[in-house]
Write a structure and sequence with these properties.
This is Hydroxymethylglutaryl-CoA lyase. Keywords: Lyase, Metal-binding. GO terms for molecular function: lyase activity. With 290 residues, the protein is an alpha/beta fold. The chain has a single domain, classed as Aldolase class I (TIM Barrel, Alpha-Beta Barrel), CATH 3.20.20.70. Helices cover 43% and strands 16% of the residues. The strands form 3 sheets. The chain has a 6-stranded parallel beta sheet with strand order 2-3-4-5-8-9. The longest helix is centred in the middle third of the chain and has 17 residues. The termini are far apart. The structure holds 3-hydroxy-3-methylglutaryl-coenzyme A (HMG) and magnesium ion (MG). The site of magnesium ion has 6 residues, from loops.
């Protein structure tokens, strides 16, 4: 028997990561329909939107309206807040769970949020302080945790520099992003195992993109390293506008199917995903090109 957790949490990131890179502006009403369908499917929380600059990511320009809709539905959700301005917007929108994201590789971080890794981490000091004053839950992404679309390989030390800071700042969870989808099960197992040994009290999450069709294998490798929280996107949508060529996130349906068949509890019935998955795919023009 494999030695693995009995229960996992699947965090659905489709409304945010899934849609952010779609070239066609998706009407806010259709995003709400997607969120409502996902909420009904039983996810414990969703990543709903991002308070980023509408010029940088036009698809997320309705963040305030999406947050208001999630508040109205009463579902737990996360919104991305990479800088202080975005935190102010999230606070004004009554968001309770935020996510910061910092690239282990400065080359990526510059393209993504126009700051070096160190500058972003310094800004996180203030973001964390303000968010903690308001009892917000803080997810801290380390993007390019394994590999970078601009720099290539990312070392364990580069990854650990960011993790160390997030642990010190008191992140509620640290999410390792395989932003360009170049990770493999060996590096995933090694890095999660080492980080768990270094920071036994920290909570880690796996966030894999499926560029090389390794997302599910990487989820399994992380599971074997004791990770029990995974991000995924309904229909396998997703990709970062600043990681050229990156494909969608690990597909929610595939994770749910695998875990349910393995007897690992997810709290989500596979059959409940069918309708919402078809709807999510109908919103995407990128999927057709995968
Ligand atoms: P910037 O241009 O460097 O911002 O953008 P700035 O501080 O220089 O300010 C310039 C102007 O923008 C100012 O306005 C600010 O007020 C305004 P002005 O005074 O000129 O009128 N501004 C804002 N307006 C609205 N919302 C804001 C905001 N901030 C400043 N938040 C910024 C910096 C971070 C905003 C920009 O780089 C940005 O929006 N980047 C988008 C990053 C992004 O969304 N990437 C995709 C998500 S990350 C991802 O996909 C990876 C992940 O999935 C994990 C993985 O896969 O690894 C999470
Ligand atoms: Mg991502």
């Amino acid at each position: 028997m494999l030695s693995i957790p009995k229960k996992v949490e699947i965090i659905e990131v489709g409304p945010r990561d899934g849609l952010q890179n779609e070239p066609r502006p998706i009407p806010t009403g259709q995003k709400k329909e997607l969120i409502s369908g996902l909420a009904k499917a039983g996810f414990s929380r969703l990543e709903a939107t991002a308070f980023v600059h509408p010029k940088w990511v036009p698809q997320m320009s309705d963040a305030e309206e999406i947050a208001a809709y999630c508040n109205q539905l009463g579902i737990p959700y996360i919104a991305l807040t990479p800088n202080l301005k975005s935190l102010e917007r999230a606070i004004a929108a009554n968001v309770k769970q935020i996510a910061v994201f910092v690239g282990a590789s400065t080359a990526f971080n510059m393209k993504n949020i126009n700051k070096t890794t160190k500058q972003s981490l310094d800004e996180c000091e203030i973001i964390f302080e303000k968010a903690k004053d308001r009892n917000m839950f803080i997810r801290a992404y380390v993007s390019t945790a394994f590999s970078c679309p601009y720099q290539g390989d990312v070392s364990f030390d580069e990854l650990n520099e960011v993790c160390k800071r997030f642990v010190r700042l008191g992140a509620d969870e640290i999410d390792l992003g395989d932003t360009n989808g170049f990770a493999n099960p060996q590096i995933v197992y090694d890095r999660f195992s080492r980080l768990k040994e270094l920071y036994p009290d920290a909570v880690f999450v796996g966030h894999f993109h499926d560029t090389k069709k390794m997302a599910l294998a990487n989820v399994l490798a992380a599971l074997l390293a004791g990770i029990d929280k995974f991000d995924s996107s309904i229909g396998g949508l997703g990709g970062c506008p600043f990681s050229p060529g990156a494909k969608g996130n690990a597909a929610t349906e595939e994770l749910i199917w695998m875990f349910n068949e393995m007897g690992v509890e997810t709290g989500i019935a596979y059959e409940r995903l069918e309708g919402v998955s078809a709807f999510a795919k109908s919103l995407s023009t990128r999927l057709a090109n995968y």
